[in-house]
What does this fold into?
Amino acid sequence: MTKVFTRPKSLTDKPFHYCPGCTHGIVHRLVAEAIDELGIREKTIGVAPVGCAVFAYEYFNCDMQEAAHGRAPAVATGIKRVLPDRVVFTYQGDGDLAAIGTAEIVHAATRGENITVIFINNAIYGMTGGQMAPTTLIGQVTATTPYGRDPGKAGYPIRMSEMLATLEGSAYIERVSVHDIKHINQAKRAIKKAFETQLAGKGFSMVEVLSTCPTNWGMTPVEALKWLEQNMIPCYPLGVKKEGK
Amino acid sequence: MSKVLMKGNEAIAEAAIQAGCRYFFGYPITPQNEIPAYMAKRLPEVGGCFIQAESEVSAINMVYGAAGAGARVMTSSSSPGISLKQEGLSYIAGAELPCVVVNMVRGGPGLGGIQPAQSDYFQATKGGGHGDYHLVVLAPSTIQEAVDLVMEGFDIADQYRNPVMILGDGMLGQMMEPVEFRPLSSKRELPLKTWATTGYTGDRPRNIINSLFIDPQALEEHVKRIYQKYEEIKKNEVKVECYNCEDAEIIVAAYGTTARIVKSVIQKAKREGINVGLIRPITLWPFPTSTFEEWAQREHVKAFMSVEMSMGQMVEDVRLSVNGRKPVYFYGRTGGMVPEPNAILSEIKKVIGGVSR
Amino acid sequence: MTHQIIIAGFGGQGIMLMGQLLAYAGMLEGKNVSWLPSYGPEMRGGTANCNVIISDEPVASPIVTEATAVMVMNRPSLDRFEGAVMRGGLLLVNSSLIDKKASRDDIEVCYIPANEIADQLGNSRVANMVMLGSYIAKTGAVSPAFVIESLRKALGPSKEHFITLNEEALKRGAECVKECVRR
It folds into this structure.
């Protein structure tokens, strides 16, 4: 019998702890597949965030470092400067990357740090119980915006991909989504391209992945995928935001 | 090698390079700016890497990453910047990574001032950040000693997989003295960094640098294991200088540049017929507790006095060590004011008058 | 023998360099030395001062509170540091910029027209070296040859042509101090 589907080598056999319907599992798999296909697992070092993906070091089957909240790009910088011939990636959520770690991500990008960032934007804090994220949509109800996000009180959603694309140091930035098969395939292509950008020594690469959080959004997994498509994509347009030569 | 006249900050930076440090991540703050500037110039010459980070927070996390990748790495700052590094230091201690951190202390709290102080003693010796941990804290009093301690500090960090802090002050950083860069007298057997994240090629288990232990039992075991390590450090690494303690009526406890001022006071006191001793902790953690215990049991020692550039921080450890055997007094200046020899001497006379009455 | 020296003036007068040259020369002679600057905002155009210790013994405190000698290059420095000279110590006053006389009578005071001499030499910036020349001649703390060697190290090979000028400044400083007598 021919095996047509198997676990990527770059994932351990540890079962994910993620909630039913959460798209972290999909993105983990896409990252692992890209690493496998590029044949770089032995020289890849990942940096896990603080957030739902805090245990990423248990899932990615490569050497890993666990960073403090928001500091993954600084930790990755330290690793990459010591080991410039290795592949270094961070995996960060929206609270980690776009709130507490804003300085770290902006400056890693502007230094043109030759690392790859996988940025999960699900418009909410998952691990701590559904608080407002910097990427929470206007009107979106969260534990800390119980009346919906009011821009007069809580500001506006932050578009990290567009922001980082303005920096000369960034080489490749794309926003993708994982709400259906077609978009998952596009996401895979983008993630692979981000690693290729690093392998070519072109500088900072980031893929922002629009994701769901059915648990904290208070929806079924299917409703959540639909909500992402209908509400998040209009606010966070998909596509390549930056591509160097 | 012949001696060179060097600023404390520059000598510390060169010592790090001589010790094999090839990575430095820092952020500007007075009075330690000569360290990053020196590193920015020197590291490229030796194939190393300097980054001026966007903040002290980022700098210490770059240290975390580089140390986790197996490199000898250093950062430096001064008090307000060291406060910002506490988060990273807690993670580094928790993940058991070796590195050297220099604090050229200035007066606080808050933005404070830029003149020399010793008011970060608690922060340095009691952990500083969250959780159960200690840094090894080395307190040089001359530039030569700073050079020697930086070089040994990297070895201590590697031997125990623990961050080491060099606790100086603005005065030590800014002043110049002759120094010699000489090989360490003690040769240590340093363990290979088999735990470093250099790529999982299959010839060893997967390496994970981490301080997260969600299961409380596992976390307790982890912390207890770190504390066993601390017991080893306490046993092996205490450094202390006893100066003129034989026959001393009163023993002053002082460290760093303050200890130098006290030495001047001791010479002055001698000319007036007063016998004053000095116990100078060189390691502030581990603290030379048994040295104080021993001298506290001597008949001729009537009292102890801690002299510090703070409102009284090390004095607590002196009291714990003397443990009620003799009275412990305190004299200090703070905010960047440096205690004057005459003022210290008159405090000593007051104490002697009080205890011999 | 321990020389405890304070040098003070305003930023740009080469105060720090004077101290460093003394310390460096002392080191070359095999003495124990330390150099301690004032630092901070006052470095930016305000007053500058440094403490230098040259001693046969290891240097304990690097801070000079009772100076064997004080050199003041401007008026505010005289006001601030005259009191720091130990009884019987030496005070060297840059009389080109300080019109006031010292008020103490328990110390030795020499008035050195350092800027006028420097101007005669064609470069007002060597006023500090004139003052240093006076100090060395008066105290013998270090030998002028070692000061020049230290200056060579400090300036680097590109500034070799300044050496003769500085040697001359040291010499003129030494000459003018000959006339200085105990008050």
Summary: The mean pLDDT of chain B is 96.
